[in-house]
Amino acid sequence: MARHVHLTAKEYGIAVIVHTDHANRPLIPWLNALIEFSEVNYAQTGRPLFSSHMLDLSAEPLDHNLDEADAMLRRLTPLGMGLEIELGITGGEEDGIGTELGEDHTANPSFYTQPVEVLTAWERLSPLGIVTIAASFGNVHGVYKPGNVTLRPEILKSSQELVSSQCGGDPNPLPLVFHGGSGSDPAIIHEALSYGVIKVNLDTDIQFAFARGVGAYVQQHETAFQHQLCPKTGRPLKKQYDPRTWLRAGEQHCIERLNEAFTILGSRGKSVASPRP
């Protein structure tokens, strides 16, 4: 996997990051095992197997969250890897983690990270290595009924201002992550980007784009998904129901949605990698 990533960068000039997402406490042993594999590969090749990992202990007390992040980052830094953490709870459900939202989502303070928590995390972890912070500002995984979600990106601005005033550096010293970006108003995304967000998660939108592509193809070739031979002509329909064909239709819709995302995020033409020797 790591070799493929480096060849991609070298041959095509495309920056690729291999990142694991949302590992909560039950998944820590799994994450530690992945780090062990990277340690072995690094000893043999000078390269880890992943670019970064994410430790999501946002549902636990802050000190426990940071204790685990501290220990993990100390292992990742010698490998040239980074760690993403989450402060405050991102609502909704992703990969079986989390719960569906209720009408009281906007009233739950856990969905809005406090800037002082961000400062505490940054002061402790940033000296140890590369850390990115997913600070919650009302964002959720998935797409939900309008009115159930209230985004407050000004929390990100306040966090940047507090860290900058206490630690110095650039106006936006924090590398922030926007979880649950799917379905968000482009204006909200642009505002979040202006406050130092460097990564936006759009998994639900990409899944929906894939489903739309496949669904449209199936509707256009309905007979092929019910019969191997056309009932009218007797001709084989294999080319139409071949999974490689309808999966490609889904991929094409993903490409369209990704190109839209690249434009909104202002990243089009900016992800060229410096080839590794």
UniProtKB/TrEMBL annotation:
Q: Which domain of life is it from?
A: Bacteria
Q: What pathway is this protein a component of?
A: Carbohydrate biosynthesis; Calvin cycle; Carbohydrate degradation; glycolysis; D-glyceraldehyde 3-phosphate and glycerone phosphate from D-glucose: step 4/4
UniProt keyword annotation of Metal-binding present? yes
Q: Which Gene3D superfamilies match?
A: Aldolase class I
Q: Which UniProt keywords apply?
A: Calvin cycle, Glycolysis, Lyase, Metal-binding, Zinc
Under the heading Pfam families, the entry gives: F_bP_aldolase
Reactions performed catalytically = beta-D-fructose 1,6-bisphosphate = D-glyceraldehyde 3-phosphate + dihydroxyacetone phosphate
> EC number(s) in its UniProt entry?
4.1.2.13
PROSITE patterns from the UniProt entry: ALDOLASE_CLASS_II_1, ALDOLASE_CLASS_II_2
- Please give the cofactor(s) recorded in the UniProt entry for this protein: Zn(2+)
- Keyword Lyase in the entry? The reply is yes
Q: Which family does it belong to?
A: Belongs to the class II fructose-bisphosphate aldolase family.
The name this protein goes by in its record: fructose-bisphosphate aldolase
Q: Which organism is it from?
A: Saccharibacter floricola DSM 15669
